[in-house]
Amino acid sequence: ARAMTFLIADGVLPDHEGRGYVLRRIMRRAIRYGRKAGAKGPFLAAVCDAVIDEMSPIYAELAEHRDVIERVVGLEEERFGETLDRGLALFAEAAEAARAAGNDTIPGEVVFRLYDTFGFPVDLTALLAREEGLQIDQAGFDECMQQQRERARAARKDTSTGDTSFSELPKTRFTGYDLLEDRGHVIAVEPRGEDSYAIVLDKTPFYAESGGQVADRGTLRWGDHHLTVEDVQKQGDVYVHLARGEQAPPSEAEVQAVVDPWWRTHTMAHHTSTHLLQAALREVLGTHVRQSGSLVEPKRLRFDFSHFAALAPEEQQAIEDIVNEKIRADLAVQTREMPYDEAVASGAMAFFGDKYGATVRVVDIGGWSIELCGGTHVRRTGEIGVFVIDSEASVSAGVRRVEAVTADIALERVRGLEQQLNTIAERLGVPRRDLIRRIDHLLEQVDATERELQRLRQKAAGNLADQLADHLEKIGDIELVAGCVPDGDINALRTLTDQVRNAAPDAIVFLISKAERPALFLSAPDQLAERLPAGQLLREAAAAMGARGGGKATSAQGGGGDPERADAAIEALRTAIQSRI
Description:
single chain; alpha+beta; six-stranded antiparallel β-barrel; six-stranded mixed beta sheet; 45% helix
């Protein structure tokens, strides 16, 4: 509990790797110990509360982060609790099978399934095995993990730069931080299908896809010829331009490399906004927020971050306001290269587990946001114009995603929303200022109509139930009410059956909905359940119309088959009852 409390207060959240995975392993072992000790419901948050009460006089940050700690622990316990029992059942089956086979080892495939499907850390499974006098097949687990990694690697393998390796070529000199147009010499050319080429230059202003920022677009020109650059990928320190056109430049030719200014300008606006967004998230939500992934394109940004709950509307509004405030402040965006240790000492944001070289590039936005970043950025935040959050959603447990737009893309988005409002107002025949009042009025009308419809349905169902009960028949000493209704699902048949039973409490009730896909429901009173079990009766009746079903002794349901053979199903039920009396 102390480990969890201090780690979460220090900004660590449960994750599938790094410090977050260490925390998750501690928490999941604790959850299992608590369950073993007899805890019937969530208990970890209460234990962590005790740690906070005991130690916050010395470590004040624990009390400051109490709400975050409680929510993170509660959510993790809830998530793991949902699969813990099923995982323990699988382990018990594997342990029993191992003993039956005279074996003392839990197979690697089972250990991997517990890890991959039920979230059991390997050391937890090993602990369970030791408690049972068993061991785990670590080598088998490792082999399963390796196979999974190879499948994942094959699925995400980037073939955009082809099979040829250019990584042994001299390092490409990137001049795009300062230039959108530059001249470079062709180092290598490789055809890639019809009118498509991979080209390496000695220097280039084209940014290669990296760090979540997409590659630049533009053209390569020489003489009267040109190629359209559709992507730029890195192979080591070599930039590979993937271009399309009628012919490739000759080897060692000098070409004019021209980046599309619209593409770069809008990409930079979204990238700088990503830095502002991260700083705003940390200010509003807490310092536990850290980047978990990003995508920066000319028309949008996508930012994934560690957090344990959906953003409340007021939180989203506060974040958006802060970013726009920094944009209006027209803060200077300065970049400089320095040794990693010096950059961190200066306050630059660097995250545990991320890889950095000895020399790093620091992006400083007015002293408010300082991050290590190799991407391209605007000169001043005022160039961004405006920032609008488009959506916020969950990506996975403990990871949220914000998508946003800036500059004239945001203006286009707002104009689109304005047009939608105008269209809605026009269709409802009211001014825009009266839209909410009009919609509220329509919703009230819909509610009133639905209530009246429900009343009429209940009345119709009551009438239908009475009609069905009027056709009660006797087979020996057994009362039976059987009939068809024109439409309805299982729930409707169940409700109708209850109404029929009010009039015929001792009867077997069998109803068939003659919908496109028929539904069947059969109910037997308690005193007949042992003698005439509903599940068995329904199976025999359903078979006569090509349907399937089953259930308990007092109620059963089914579906499918030919609705035109419903009468045959009722006759089959009569025969089944007759054979048992």
